[in-house]
Amino acid sequence: MIDIRAIPAVVNLVILCIVSAVSAKAELTGLELSRQIARDATKPTESWPLPSAGPVALDNQTIVYIGEDLRNGGILGVGAGVREAARSIGWKVYFFDIGSRDEFRESVFSEAFSKRPDGIILGGMDGVANAVFLNRFEEAGIPVVGWHVAPFPGPVAGTPIQVNVTTDSLEVARTAAHYVIADSEGEAKVILFTDSRFAIALKKSSTMQEIIGACEKCTVLETLDIELDEVAQQVPQAVEKLLNKYGERWHYSLGINDLYFDYFVTPLVMNGYQPDGAPLSISAGDGSPSAFLRIQNDSYQKATVPEPLLFHGWQLIDELNRLLQKHPPSGYISPPHIVTKDNIWPKHDHLNLFDPENGYRNSYLRSWGKGSKQ
Predict the structure, then answer these.
(1) For 361-370, what is the mean pLDDT?
(2) Extended beta strands in the chain, E state
């Protein structure tokens, strides 16, 4: 556990602001509460809080980034942020890809260790399941941080992972559910999509079901359990059956991931459904380039709650810099943000990723003693 007294004053201020905001929302109920949460989550990201300043950057560090599968857009996007941040302070980064192949796992970790890194970043893998491969790093005093290596931010119990960088997945689920209630004026009829293999996926879908269920005139029509690696095979047929079963009663789809909605388009088109009409799709966490294209073109997806992948890459470098100098972690958690057609950004040059505009790059560069970008 991190002693709250060790967290910098700026973070304490952010915590106080969050507590105040939560207290204000607690006075609202029903549809008004959902409207307020939706308004807050769709505000411009210039108002996002910045991480607290850490120590000046060390020179000439070598780190390794081990991705569970670099074909995954999230893991790849975070890796791009890591590379960008490391280059800005002169650190060397080696990238390794397990490719979700268990037979390669041990050899990849062994090769990464052979680089004699000063720090290690894990991308998108189960921290507890991979803890056995981290023993040699821990014994060598090499700090370990990760992205999406556990359901919640912070240290990962039972592992050497001192920081897990991620948004709060349950806050993301709550935000998505309240957005649907607000968008429907409190009358949403919803089908949920989840993957029961993952505890956090079930927690997200059950959280959304609970919130939708508490809305007096809303209804959860059904929850479908479809494995994420089976969506291409199962989702088109599932959508056909749901359209035949519910027809116009199906207003919204809430998924734990944008991937489900990649395979909605064909059956909806073939059944004559308009791209900007019901059923409207909202993802509680992901933010894939294909989802952004659908949202931008008002084509079979209404919204998503994306991860700030590049920002998270910079945060991972900052967390390592703190740990290497025996400073406590920053304690920073990025807030949920809903991307819709009304607030989607102009296309950037970096993989069409969600990139908050709160000046985090310059903030980190100043903190690291590297000036700022012009």
Answers:
(1) 96
(2) 62-67, 92-97, 119-123, 144-147, 161-165, 189-194, 219-225, 252-255, 280-286, 303-306
